[in-house]
Amino acid sequence: MAQGQMAPGIVAGRLSSDELAANFDDLHPAYAPHEAAVAADRCYFCYDAPCQTACPTEIDIPLFIRQIQTGHPEAAARTILEQNILGGMCARVCPTETLCEEACVREAAEGKPVEIGRLQRYATDTLMARGVHPFTRAASTGKRVAVVGAGPAGLACAHRLAMLGHDVVIHEARPKAGGLNEFGIAAYKATGGFAGAEVDWLLQIGGITVEQGSALGQGLTLDALRADYDAVFLSIGLAGVNALRAAGEDKAGVRDAVDFIAELRQADDLSALPVGRNVVVIGGGMTAIDAAVQSKLLGAENVTVAYRRSRAEMGASGFEQDLAASKGVRLMFNVMPVAVHGNGAAVEIELEYTTSAGGSVTGTGETVRLAADQVFKAIGQTLRGAPEGLELDGRKIKVEGAGRTSVPGVWAGGDCASGGEDLTVTAVAEGRDAAMDIHAQLSA
Amino acid sequence: MADLKTNFLGIESPNPFWLASAPPTDKEYNVRRAFEAGWGGVVWKTLGSEGPPVVNVNGPRYGAIYGADRRLLGLNNIELITDRPLETNLEEIARVKADYPDRAVIVSIMVPCEEAAWKAILPRVAETGADGIELNFGCPHGMSERGMGAAVGQVPEYIEMVTRWCKTHYDKPVIVKLTPNITDIRYPARAARNGGADAVSLINTISSITSVNLDNFSPEPSIDGKGSHGGYCGPAVKPIAMNMVAEIARDPETQGLPISGIGGVTTWRDAAEFMSLGCGTVQVCTAAMTYGFRVVEEMKSGLSQWMDEKGYTSVDDFIGRAVPNVTDWQYLNLNYVAKAKIDQDQCIKCGRCYAACEDTSHQAISMSEDRVFEVMDDECVACNLCVDVCPIEGCISMVPMQPGETDPRTGKVVQADYANWTTHPNNPMARAAE
């Protein structure tokens, strides 16, 4: 018997396994072939297409859609994967509404872009379902490259280097490769163990070894890597989480949203995963939305996203905001946490209203209290564990050109590196481009 | 709502929308349902001589060409004339005509090219009370191999001969249905007129192979691995049909010969266009086969609404109105100068006009860094390709230059008077202006 939404506290099994299975089903179900054909027919095959320009990996979108149209989804997949080896995951998680689909001329014409993301998924799923890996390795160069972190940037970099004939060792702290594709991102965006399957498929290229439990600071040093390898690529992500800086932050029931999401992604049985009755998520980005929506889908009665700035300033896209609203998540704007109340464990959260103008946030003095037995902090991640000696740019590893750090022979990309948005697709582009630069330098 | 009443050769029908001789008109059941759905008339599917009827293939009879979302644009068929006994058809025609006296019932006929064969069947058809006959000189497949259908329609002498037999042995209107599978449609039309035909109808289907199966290399539709050319119809053939209609309408030898237009009529607009080119009625098949008989509702309401908007009270008000404007290329006004103009407010910046012009035409459209596309008047020849490839209707238009303005492409002042190729100095055959 399910516990129900009203069960007090943080409890598991609020919903039946059938309800949970339905709730965590594919957000955008895969196209059937005819749907794909109809969707593909809508593409105008634009000249110097704006969608391609808007894609951080610059996939030739009109070409791959035309290949779907003419009955060759596998060829379409190859067009995609040549630019973006994680095209399957990007098709699922890219905020297309702010990238290719926003740029689609049909968005301008009628407010309904060609569904590029879903078409990309159709192509890549078709290819991957056949179990083939479309790329082969060049003759061995005898060069060895270390990649630190098996997230999207690291995987993209490793794959491209392996293709070019280099041998790659990926050092990964966690027990599984995939980075945020495996441990972050809402479950309904990457159903059916896709993240893991994609990594396995990617590694079919050969020449890549993944060493699990191997991380900088845990026996691994940059100096040693530089000595042992011909080049080093750092893609260590943002392992730290910003503090709330509100009274009562240490009470039971207050935790980092990224940990909750990782736990959820790794859970074999969602009905064993506890969630509060009254959940408040602090933050305004994708992580906040992912945590909030999944709390709701697990059966929380009340879920609120509390963001300290206005809707217009929210990091989460309009699509994500609408998704949250449609699942019954309440979005509160211009409120910031001042205290978590409760005797040992959180019971309420006290929020202060704000005005946010010109970048600064000022409390108005007026406060409101919400019931909150669970509070998720989703106010941004920070660089942690970056090796000494690397120049930083603000709070990230400073890179120039195609990911070159201040240390010779060391490149960096993905969320840990400066420049670009913190998106899977951007990480893939940075990993790929760094690989090309490493290759150029190793071949010189 | 404007009255769509039509009088064609003295045959009255409540509207000009007739179902063409084809599978939809093969039997009483269908024709009754068609009349209930509102069709103005039918041309009964082609009858053959008495005796064992023809047989059809037992595999696929149709092949198709699609546009976006599997919208059927072209259909080809290898079906023959009716495969039901003559007697059955005649009984059914008589019953239907008796029950629907206000609708046009025309009987399509195809018998061997011998006077006796025609003389035998015509009185039988007359007995049904049908309003007229249509001679099937068009069917391009199967029957033509047996010396009938298009095999007759491709020989003007035969057309004239058979038409004359029919006028001799039948006293109601005789319509001759023409095949487009010839080089110049005017010759068979003239032959029909010379034979005494009351009207021509066109086009019959166009010989075609719609596709080839790339696994077994059989043309489609495939019958046990082999395919035969079929007859092509549907929206794709409309431009070909309209040109042939216009050729007959403006030919001095056939001018005034009534025409029933056939070929891809799918909407009211198609019908209005055919009729403006001189057709007194239109015949429809593919649209009905694609969407069912109910599609006639839109055709009727659409034509009627358009007539109201234009102030036409009868179809006779616009039949043939476009004919005087169909001319030969040599008479087109070479002093008419237009330039493409892109409406920036409507432009969605797809760049198709740019690609088309830059890659395949006159390099007359510029593209800026921020994707603003503009026509360069000094290069634009007004070819219209940009208009044709633009996905937004009305975004690019062809704006005529006014007399007195200077065409920046040629540096010449636009003249108000009309001048064509016949008098152009570059024409070696030019005659001095009189």
From TrEMBL, chain A:
InterPro entries: DPD_II, FAD/NAD-bd_sf, FAD/NAD-binding_dom, Helical_ferredxn
Residue span, FAD/NAD(P)-binding domain: 144-431
Pfam family, one: Pyr_redox_2
SUPFAM superfamilies: alpha-helical ferredoxin, Nucleotide-binding domain
Location of the Dihydroprymidine dehydrogenase domain: 22-130
PANTHER family documented for this protein: GLUTAMATE SYNTHASE [NADPH] SMALL CHAIN, GLUTAMATE SYNTHASE [NADPH] SMALL CHAIN-RELATED
Protein name listed in UniProt: NAD(P)-dependent oxidoreductase
Lineage start: Bacteria, Pseudomonadati, Pseudomonadota, Alphaproteobacteria, Rhodobacterales
Automatic annotation (TrEMBL), chain B:
UniProt keyword Metal-binding, yes or no: yes
Keywords (A to Z) from UniProt: Iron, Iron-sulfur, Metal-binding, Oxidoreductase
Reactions performed catalytically: 5,6-dihydrothymine + NAD(+) = thymine + NADH + H(+); 5,6-dihydrouracil + NAD(+) = uracil + NADH + H(+)
Complex formation: Heterotetramer of 2 PreA and 2 PreT subunits.
Stated family: Belongs to the dihydropyrimidine dehydrogenase family.
Function: Involved in pyrimidine base degradation. Catalyzes physiologically the reduction of uracil to 5,6-dihydrouracil (DHU) by using NADH as a specific cosubstrate. It also catalyzes the reverse reaction and the reduction of thymine to 5,6-dihydrothymine (DHT).
Name the UniProt record assigns to this protein: dihydrouracil dehydrogenase (NAD(+))
Gene source species: Ruegeria aquimaris
